[in-house]
Amino acid sequence: MKLRQLFTLDGVNLELESESKDDILKELIQLLDLEEKSEAILFKTLKRRENLGSTGIGKGIAIPHCRSLVVNELRLAYGRKPGGVDFNAIDGEPVYNFFLIVAPPLEVSNQYLPVLGKIAQFAKDPDIPGKLTEMEDPQDFLDLLEDRAP
Amino acid sequence: MTAAADRARMDPQLMLLLELQDLRAQRKELAESEQAGQVESEHFHIDPTAAGQELDLKIAELEGELDPGVRARYERILPSRDRVVVPVINGVCYGCFVSIPTATAGDQESHTDVQGCEHCGSFIYILG
Q: How many domains does one find in chain A?
């Protein structure tokens, strides 16, 4: 399955407002439209994953990810923080682009790890950070995936 | 307490069980999936062995916070089941795929008690 098929317009926010790593995670989680209790659990699980090592892979991109019982299918969201935020990224630079990936503990289709790999591969394309900065509305993001993502 | 706060309220023991379940899922994946270790080390510079040890410590710490009754049941379920907590979706327990009583399935508004599936014994979390 192509990455484009896994994102929806509702799961894209080009104007994240938060100024801290925790609040960015919470804002991203809200894009998944879960019930409040599930949001709290998911936040804790994502934080635990971040404590193992930041998912900020450098060049202004982070890919917070985890498996959690609070979703019953693979869920993805994208957020952009125009001013950037300190996310303890590998290169120590601010992060502007966030790809959130959450999968249930068991998936019949087993897409989680391949999708995680595809997003990392997409994000590492040298042109992509610039293209992400230029986007003007959420549809531009979906179009970019359609054109450039595996 | 406001209606919104009440909706957000969850039994702390259920919260712990859900955290444990998610951590165990991460741990199992790191231990059993070569692909998981590869993705985490290649893209995120994580050492899968060290991460696994860290997760083990956190799991043990959280298990220590379970109430004795909940912990006893947790330890009874653990050896025989991959997942100690399972979702209930549309009234069906995803541990055993048997319908659970409507009164239990209808409790999704509160999640104020730790509940189990009467059929398979797994702890349950009502997802929808």
A: 1
The one-letter amino acid at B121:
G
Task: Find the helix or strand (DSSP H, E) in which B70 lies.
Answer: helix B68-77
Q: Which among A44, A57, A72 has the least Cβ separation from residue B89?
A: A72
pLDDT in tens, A26-51: 999 999 999 888 999 999 999 999 99
- Beta bridge pairs of residue A139: none
Both tokens assigned to B127: 């997802």
What pLDDT, in 10s, does the model give residues A100-118? Answer: 999 998 887 889 999 999 9
Question: In the A/B pair of chains, how many CB contacts fall below 8 A?
Answer: 90
Q: Which residue among A40, A69, A90 places its CB closest to the CB of B85?
A: A69
Question: What is the predicted ipTM?
Answer: 0.84
What residue ranges define each of the domains in chain B, with the CATH number in brackets?
3-126 (1.10.287.1490)
Per CB-CB distance under 8 Å, the chain A contacts of B39 are: 113, 116-117, 120
Q: Which of B43, B46, B111 sits opposite A120 (nearest CB)?
A: B43
Inter-chain touch B83–A106, beta carbons under 8 Å = yes
Domain that holds residue A103: 3-144
The first and second tokens of residue B92, run together, are 């069906």
pLDDT beneath 50, residues of chain B? 1, 3, 6
Helix (H), strand (E) counts: chain A: 5, 6
Rg of chain B (C-alpha set) = 16
pLDDT given for residue B1 in this prediction: 44
Largest Cα–Cα distance of chain A, in whole Å? 39
A135 within some domain: yes
